[in-house]
Design brief:
By secondary structure, this protein is mainly α. Helix 3 packs across helix 4.
């Protein structure tokens, strides 16, 4: 396989289009969340992921699972958790069955902010996708996005 291989070029072009779409969406959401709620897109994502935890079997996520869900390294996720904890939006506690494990829950203030920010996030996502759908190189990806479901953290 060479650098001029047509399949490599198509693959590279596809990856560039996907990266472009992601960047545009994330940037649009970031601006909307910052302007209306003082949240970054990553902070919103972390609150959203952690708000979905439950007390049932496997209902609380370990930090590695949280990091995977918000697409950050464990160290970056820990720093993000600390920032939101300092703002009173998250709280950490020891796992009752394994004193080495630390869990993170969204506080009432965090849930309130998340509830207020969710419509902003959803509207910004819709706006960004609608705008991207007007670009011929991005339109096929926008169509696919509408058919996807989020993976369940493991």
């Amino acid at each position: 396989m060479t650098a001029t291989d047509p399949s490599l070029t198509a693959l590279t072009q596809g990856w560039c289009a996907l990266s472009l779409l992601h960047g545009r969406i994330e940037s649009h959401i970031e601006r909307a969340l910052q302007a209306k709620h003082g949240l970054s897109a990553r902070e919103y994502s972390l609150l959203d992921v952690l708000s979905r935890q439950h007390d049932g079997e496997g209902g609380h996520l370990q930090m590695k699972q949280v990091a995977d869900a918000v697409v950050l390294s464990q160290s970056a996720t820990t720093r993000l958790v600390t920032r939101l904890e300092d703002r009173g939006l998250l709280e950490r506690y020891l796992c009752p069955t394994d004193r080495r494990g630390i869990y993170t829950n969204v506080t009432e203030a965090g849930l309130k902010l998340l509830t207020e920010a969710r419509p902003t996030n959803d509207a910004a996502l819709r706006e960004a996708l609608d705008e991207a759908a007007k670009k011929p190189e991005l339109a096929p990806l926008v169509q696919v996005v509408g058919t996807l479901t989020a993976p369940v953290p493991v």
